[in-house]
Amino acid sequence: MKSYPDLFSSHRSDETKEEMVTIHDHLKARFAFTRQDLEQVLGRLKDSDLPWAPREGMPTIADLLLEIANKEKETLVWVQKGVWPDEDPDAFDTQSATLHKIRSTFGLLRTATYAYIDSLSEAELEESVHSPERWWEAMRQTECPLSEVLRNIAVHEWYHTAQLVTYLWLRGDDPKHW
């Protein structure tokens, strides 16, 4: 995969044709950019932080990390099998997971996501996918391109990464000093 800056910084000359940036490139760049932020948060955490939440009734740090992992796992199953996997087990157990196990799970899921993206043509990535009724990421539309479904895995990850940044900030770990 081209690195993110390389996607947009190549120069065109008369003798060299610029390689076109593909949907695959854009998706992988979005995933890499988003994961970079999550990794920065993970680097600020210890295993003992996983059960912490700012207030009773709010999701713990482990819960938010599980939400990130489960969404990627569930979405991959849905787009490959056509059925939302309501009964599948969670990506990891929040009570026994360690940061090492969570990072490993994230790595395996992202490898599977990239493999799935790589298995598709540009045309397949643009095919419409009917959205499950409860899937809000479709922006209240009944269908959207498969590439948008995949892109929303990263959007979802970023949303919860921002929550985790807020949790850390509430504990005095100012992200402006990271």
UniProtKB/TrEMBL annotation:
- Show the SUPFAM superfamilies listed in the entry: DinB/YfiT-like putative metalloenzymes
Question: InterPro entries from the entry?
Answer: DinB-like, DinB/YfiT-like
Lineage, please?
A: Bacteria, Bacillati, Armatimonadota, Fimbriimonadia, Fimbriimonadales
DinB-like domain sequence ranges: 31-164
- Please give the organism: Fimbriimonas ginsengisoli Gsoil 348
Using the record for this protein, list the coiled-coil segments as residue ranges, or answer none. none
Note the superkingdom of the native organism: Bacteria
- Protein's name according to its UniProt entry: DinB-like domain-containing protein
